[in-house]
Amino acid sequence: MTEKRMNIATSLNGKYVKYTYVMLTLLLMNQAGVNIHVYLLHNDLTQWEQEQLRILVEGYNQNIHFLWVDKESLPTGLPTTKAWSLECYYRLMLLDILPVDIDRILYLDVDMIINKGTLLDRF
Fold first, then answer.
1. CB-count burial class (<10 Å; 0-12, 13-18, 19+) for 34
2. pLDDT score for 68
3. 57, 81, 84, 123: most buried by Cβ count inside 10 Å?
4. Positive or negative: CA dihedral 113, 115, 120, 123
């Protein structure tokens, strides 16, 4: 029997690390029995911030991948606001950033609350 794998992507900047930490904690707590691979798209996370997220995910025996995004590769003049940062556009680059062996992925916003149940059933 093949182990179930769930690929999760999210994008963030340093201001949203704490929200990402909460979302990932809830995801990892509520998706037992699933091989989770988390792909974090970022441009400005410090080594310390990355290490805290790595410790969290690996503490649940899951996998985390940090994917650095070159902001210069985005079109100039994209509209942003205080609520909508440039990182919101990173999801549009997933096909260019992800490893080629990823056949599907679920994008989750960092401010989501993951309740009990399995996302994989809907994925």
1. middle
2. 92
3. 57
4. negative
CA 92 to chain centre: 13
pLDDT at 52 over 70: yes
Give the residue from 63, 78, 74 showing the smallest Cα distance to 28. Answer: 63
pTM for the whole thing? 0.87
**Token pair for 110:** 């960092």
Give the tokens for residue 4.
Answer: 């179930």
Query: What is the C-alpha to C-alpha distance for residues 89 and 52, in angstroms, rounded to an integer?
Result: 24
**What proportion of the chain, given as a percentage, has pLDDT over 70?**
93
Which 8-state DSSP code applies to residue 56?
H
- Assigned token pair, 37: 């691979």
Q: Name residue 13's amino acid.
A: N
Cα 38 to Cα 15, 44, 67, 82, 89: the distances in Å are 19, 18, 10, 26, 18
Q: Are 98 and 92 in contact (CB under 8 A)?
A: no
Give the burial class of 99: count Cβ atoms within 10 A of its Cβ; 0-12 exposed, 13-18 middle, 19 or more buried: exposed
pLDDT cut 90: percent of the chain above it: 57
